[in-house]
Predict the 3D structure of the following.
Amino acid sequence: MEAKFVKYLQRLPVFKDVPAAALAPIAGQIEVRHLVKGDVLMRQGTPGDSLFIIQTGWVEVVKESSQGQEVVLNQCGPGQLIGEMALVDQEPRSATVIALSPATVLELKQAVLLEAFQQHPILAIAFIRSLTDRLRFANTYLEEAIEWSRYIAQGNYSFVLDQVNLAQTTIVDLSRSDEARAGAFLAAFFKMIEEVKAREESLKQQVQQLTIQIDEVKRQRSVEELTDSPFFDTLQTLSKKRREERAAREKKPPEEE
């Protein structure tokens, strides 16, 4: 079994330059885990004492907010590593990982890996390379999120909504660019923009209606102020007098002129 795992690890890009002698110690300590769709491989906030290599299937990496909302950070498939940050900072898991399909996962304990790193530094370099790739993708993810947020702040919802509509809802192909993959993950989160836009339109209509009502109140108040003034009374008196004089002239017989 150890030789089988050594050959498998050597086929992975992250271990392409690592000799079999360096891989043998960890290959002999691999634990195999089988997941079904929906299984939680690791949960945000729990201790991180191992890393995982996805052998078959797909998993999703999500960040959970205090309100229970989830933001998709990544999706990982065959040959990819998950949980390697725990080997560096020894902090609790920063995200939750859920199986998107039936999956086979290889688990490597932290203690085994740290000992192997001391004996074979080239193995540690391989893991650093994996972390670097993850950081590059994280940077791309943040850049895309900032750009989308900028459009939203400007009130330009059409760009974000177009991106949401274009995003695929199935497993993201690893052959796609980091920008495309990050956009697909962000789309699920930014779907809320549809609700935000709808609420904004509703508020605009309410403000417009309120403005009309306020203008009508002002107009009525102005009319009342004018009609209640002495000047308006004088005008009414003069107008009445002129109407009476005109009526009298119209009734006067022609011979009296």
Residues 2-134 form a domain with the Jelly Rolls fold (CATH 2.60.120.10). Residues 192-227 form the longest helix (36 residues).
